[in-house]
Design brief:
Strand content: 15-25%
Radius of gyration: 21 Å
Number of strands: 7
Distance between the termini: 30 Å
Number of helices: 6
Order of helices and strands: EHHEEEHEHEHEH
Strand order of the largest sheet: 5-6-7
Number of domains: 2
Largest sheet: 3 strands, parallel
Structural class: alpha/beta
């Protein structure tokens, strides 16, 4: 599910997020920051539509970036055609006047989305700092084996312990930890990641 929040007009957004007595926790982002965010949204939002290839001769063209490991900076690699996601089952465009309504309804849409069930032989997960995306992925994608792509500082035992602890306190938290496997890779070498996944696939 892709949730596409359309921004308010700049002046309305500035007014809506000012700190007041009624809203002491408002963000109050500086105007120049909001102007930059509006510009980036205008340039990048067409990339949400994978059915269209952007014209190269547009006045404001979104760029594709790669990460330079040596210099620790992002570098442009050329014109972006669309965002790098595989697919989404539903796109939910949200207009400014519908913010509050959609905030109430999106949780229900997310639960409905989890009812989709896909059966696979193996599902590979990127194991980062956040455990919840992995849990949701395992709930949604049924597989004989779940394989976690990890760096040297992470391992699947951490996730197994996480699930086992939750099972003790929540009877509805049912994950078969026997299906969990891991591959240790060099995260700075894309070729190494590809080869490790291919090697594991051939062994399965």
């Amino acid at each position: 599910m892709l949730i596409d929040f359309k921004p308010r007009e700049l002046e309305l957004h500035l007014e809506a997020q000012k700190i007041t007595q009624e809203r002491p926790d408002a963000h109050q982002v500086d105007k120049d920051v909001l102007e930059r965010m509006h510009k980036e949204h205008r340039i990048s939002s067409p990339c949400l539509d994978k059915t269209k290839i952007l014209r190269i001769d547009t006045l404001e063209t979104p760029m594709d970036y790669g990460w330079d490991v040596a210099q620790c900076i992002k570098k442009p690699r050329g014109i972006a055609k669309h965002y790098d996601y595989d697919f989404y089952l539903e796109r939910v465009p949200v207009e400014p006047q519908d913010y509050e309504k959609q905030n109430r309804e999106l949780s229900l849409k997310a639960l409905k989305f989890l009812e989709y069930n896909f059966d696979f032989d193996v599902v590979f997960h990127s194991f980062g700092e956040q455990l919840m995306p992995i849990f949701l992925g395992m709930r949604q994608f049924s597989a004989q084996k779940h394989v976690f792509i990890i760096s040297s500082s992470k391992n699947a035992e951490t996730l197994k312990r996480f699930f086992e602890e939750r099972k003790k306190t929540n009877e509805n938290f049912q994950i078969n930890t026997d299906r969990l496997h891991s591959i240790e890779v060099n995260v700075f070498e894309p070729k190494n990641i590809y080869e490790k996944i291919l090697e594991h696939t051939n062994m399965a």
